[in-house]
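Worked Example 4.2. Consider the chain below.
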Amino acid sequence: MNDWNPALYTRFEAERTRPAAELLARVPLEAPRRVTDLGCGPGNSTELLAARFAAARILGIDTSQAMLASARVRLPSLAFERGDIADWSPEEPVDLAFANASLQWVPDHERVFPRLVSMLAPGGVLAVQMPDNDAEPTHVLMRETAADPRFASAREKMPGARPRVLSPHRYYDLLAPLAEVEIWRTTYFHRLPGAASIVQWLRSAGLRPFLEPLTAEQQTDFLTEYERRIAAAYPQRVDGMRVLSFPRLFIVAQRSAS
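Applying the procedure from the previous section yields the following structure tokens:
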């Protein structure tokens, strides 16, 4: 895929950062020495980690050079490196591997999640938050819009947006033999001024794999049709706002200290 757009991503930064803050609040560590932000994006989650664990050695990794550049400007005293979570391997075991809204882009969770736990130091924590919205109208309508005959020439290049997130029970079964596991799911209800705002939110993430195979003209047609469908699926509420429901899955897995 083309590189990410940090400016577009951070347009809804407060809403995107809230789940990271709530995940961090459930991390049962007092003073970790080595912390890695897996898929750090523009550094909004890394900033939370630095505020709580000021004495830790914190590293942010991401596949996007644009996101890393934005993170370095935001947090010049921290270290950021280009890396892929799928094959990431730390130089030494880490005390906290923090993955906020990044692992949903990584395939083969059956392999990746146990692998990440294996890279933790004794007592270390894997903390994960992932959008779990494949069944929401936003994502159903992406697939339905992609089926429009106007986009047939590019349809084979549209991957299903991202690898499917597994069920909470499957993550538990994968991780429970390796760590003490806590899992919960939260649905956020975001107030947005219109259907166009919902589309703008999704353009920076979920819509990207659908739009990139299209020509500029097709992208315009896709977004126009998608916004029409979004407007019907998310009607105005009594105050004129639209309410975007956004489920997210949280996992905290702590290895035994011995």
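The mean pLDDT is 92. Residues 216-233 form the longest helix (18 residues). Compare this with Example 4.1 before moving on.
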